[in-house]
Backbone:
């Protein structure tokens, strides 16, 4: 019998033994209803199975050993990292020019969003004026008529709040980018450079931003007064939605004001103004005592 046929012969015996094991255990349990008898039979056939498997392993050990010898008995060798090995990082930190570009792009984008806020408020104002006039003309009418007009006002305010919500999400991301890049730009730029009129530009931006915040806060207070009237449930809900988004816009504006204040502190620390005496003192170069 050849070596391969001999291996198949023992493999067949192993499969027959396993089949006999399963059949005998199942039949014994069905006939005797005894787990103990099944375990005894399982032990007997398990011993036979182990013997057959071991014999099959011995049949394979010789060819595997010969193959290992022909391959030169290769072994897995772990290679450790070489000490002091330097690798170039894939991502390095940004420079002040990157921050400057990011600040300018975010500022331009935020300016467009603020214009969109203004356009939305300008478009909403005449609609609210018209709706307020309608509310005054229906005083004394049936409750159904007054409730219908109030709910129309609620739908108008709700759509207005939805547009504000979309703008606010964009504006918040722009404010965060603008604030981060502004402070990082001034913190990393060479202090030997001249900022020119930029400090004055920041002061003007701070003043205008504070005025914008005051205007938005006044608008929110007007909506709060309408909400306190508790006219109808839809109108209360619409006012709550608008008040919430106006609060977020004010938070965004506050973060911008904080960033401008931080930037001005960085400027005063890294680009301190010369003493006033040095600016006003006349030059004595070339003069005689």
Residues:
């Amino acid at each position: 019998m050849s070596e391969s046929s001999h291996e198949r012969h023992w493999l067949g015996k192993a499969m027959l033994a396993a089949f006999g094991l399963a059949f005998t255990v199942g039949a014994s349990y069905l006939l005797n209803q005894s787990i103990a008898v099944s375990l005894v039979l399982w032990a007997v056939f398990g011993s036979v199975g182990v013997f057959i498997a071991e014999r099959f392993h011995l049949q394979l050990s010789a060819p595997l050993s010969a193959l290992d010898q022909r391959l030169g008995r290769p072994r897995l060798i772990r290679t450790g990292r070489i000490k002091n090995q330097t690798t170039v990082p894939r991502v390095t930190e940004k420079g002040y020019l990157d921050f400057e570009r990011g600040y300018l792009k975010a500022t331009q984008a935020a300016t467009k969003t603020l214009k969109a806020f203004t356009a939305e408020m300008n478009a909403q104002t005449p609609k609210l004026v018209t709706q307020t006039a309608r509310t005054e003309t229906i005083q004394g009418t049936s409750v159904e008529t007054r409730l219908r007009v109030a709910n129309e006002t609620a739908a108008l305010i709700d759509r207005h709040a939805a547009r504000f919500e979309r703008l606010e999400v964009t504006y918040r991301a722009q404010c965060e980018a603008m604030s981060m890049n502004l402070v990082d730009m001034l913190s990393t730029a060479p202090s030997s450079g001249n900022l020119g009129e930029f400090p004055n530009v920041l002061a003007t931006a701070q003043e205008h931003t504070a005025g914008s915040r005051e205007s938005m806060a006044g608008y929110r207070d007007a909506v709060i007064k309408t909400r306190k009237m508790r006219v109808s449930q839809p109108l209360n809900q619409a006012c709550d939605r608008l008040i919430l988004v106006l609060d977020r816009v004010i938070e965004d504006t506050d973060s911008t004001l904080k960033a401008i204040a931080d930037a001005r502190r960085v400027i005063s620390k890294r680009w301190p103004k010369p003493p006033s005496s040095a600016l006003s003192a006349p030059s004595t170069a070339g003069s005689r005592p």
Summary: The mean pLDDT is 77. Residues 96-271 form one domain.
